[in-house]
């Protein structure tokens, strides 16, 4: 431990760490030089496994610990933080998690260690009172590149793909990936990764990056919400709100009702459903969907305390069912994209 270099009581590193690379490890080690205690904030926690978020937050903690020495690991604490897709709520959650690890430190005693590389680094400006230590570029390293090589290796020997990552990732990460590839979810996620890659290729020649518009319907009734289980990739087998793409000659309201009927078979009189509409919110975070830039209009309907209508899954839905609102928080890691967070926004499921 380099005591001379230490200037602060606590240091903070923030990232998703979905495939630990050498640049991220350098940031953590820089933090260890600056303070005796380091808090690593693990973003995108509690998400369902997807090609973009294949590793649980616990697995990412293990990946980081394996890359550190025993002495280094003893000085590092971890804080999992969900994607609220709401900047203010996210900042509050990060601050609360760090405070739980470090306590209330005097002003000037907490340093945020990171690097302003692009628009994804804007969060570094969201913590007034924390000093910033910009480590600068650590080379052209990205976790997405590691994931692409990793999932692209399915169907052929894995070792050549891991060998190509030697200059990008610590040996412990490569060993972790080698072991993790034995899990059944590896092939499932690799198939989804391939589907997404094929879908993006269809738009590769477009003059501008595509922006998709979708709709979702949150139907509340007698303490339950209506959910589907997706029958197709991306997100096959995950819970989602009934919804889909906006069609050319429809309003977003008309699209929401059409998708609701097609996927769940729910039939209500036009006057009843119109009276039940409580609000519409736009969810437009750039990273909310694996497909790319997808902006959705979520419609919240409350049918009151009536008997639950009969529903059945069809079209893109493997199944449809009424799920008690009280059970939703425990299902967070089984939702497609940001659909849990849409529910949370309307129903207040998390603190």
UniProtKB/TrEMBL annotation:
It comes from the Bacteria. Residues 210-346 form the Nudix hydrolase domain. PANTHER family: BIFUNCTIONAL NMN ADENYLYLTRANSFERASE_NUDIX HYDROLASE, PHOSPHOPANTETHEINE ADENYLYLTRANSFERASE. It holds the Pfam family CTP_transf_like. This is Cytidyltransferase-like protein. Keywords: Nucleotidyltransferase, Transferase. The keyword rRNA-binding does not apply. One of its GO terms (molecular function) is nucleotidyltransferase activity. It comes from Hydrogenophaga taeniospiralis CCUG 15921.
């Amino acid at each position: 431990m380099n005591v001379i270099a230490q200037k602060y009581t606590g240091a903070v590193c923030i990232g998703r760490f979905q495939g630990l690379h050498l640049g991220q490890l350098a940031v953590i080690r820089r933090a260890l030089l600056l303070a005796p205690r380091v808090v690593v904030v693990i973003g995108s926690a509690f998400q369902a496994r997807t090609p973009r978020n294949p590793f649980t937050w616990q697995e990412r903690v293990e990946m980081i610990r394996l890359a550190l020495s025993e002495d280094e690991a003893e000085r590092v604490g971890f804080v999992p933080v969900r994607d609220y897709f709401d900047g203010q709520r996210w900042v509050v959650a990060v601050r609360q998690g760090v405070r739980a690890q470090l306590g209330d430190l005097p002003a000037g005693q907490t340093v945020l260690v990171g690097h302003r590389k692009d628009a994804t680094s804007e969060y570094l400006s969201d913590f007034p009172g924390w000093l910033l230590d910009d480590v600068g570029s650590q080379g052209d390293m990205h976790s997405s590149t590691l994931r692409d090589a990793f999932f692209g290796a399915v169907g052929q020997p894995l070792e050549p793909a891991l060998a190509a990552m030697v200059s990008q990732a610590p040996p412990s990460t490569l060993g972790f990936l080698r072991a993790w590839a034995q899990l059944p979810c590896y092939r499932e996620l690799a198939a989804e990764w391939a589907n997404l890659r094929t879908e993006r290729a269809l738009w590769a020649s477009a003059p501008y990056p595509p922006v998709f518009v979708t709709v979702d319907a949150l139907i509340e009734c007698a303490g339950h919400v209506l959910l589907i289980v997706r029958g197709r990739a991306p997100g096959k087998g995950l819970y989602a709100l009934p919804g889909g793409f906006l069609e050319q000659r429809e309003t977003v309201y008309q699209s929401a009702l059409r998708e609701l009927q097609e996927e769940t078979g729910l039939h209500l009189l036009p006057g009843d459903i119109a009276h039940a509409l409580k609000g519409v919110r736009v969810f437009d975070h750039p990273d909310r969907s694996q497909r790319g830039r997808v902006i959705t209009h979520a419609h919240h309907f409350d049918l009151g305390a009536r008997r639950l209508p009969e529903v059945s899954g069809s079209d893109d839905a493997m199944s449809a069912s009424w799920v008690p609102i009280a059970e939703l928080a425990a299902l967070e890691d089984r939702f497609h994209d940001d659909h849990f967070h849409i529910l949370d926004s309307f129903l207040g499921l998390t603190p």
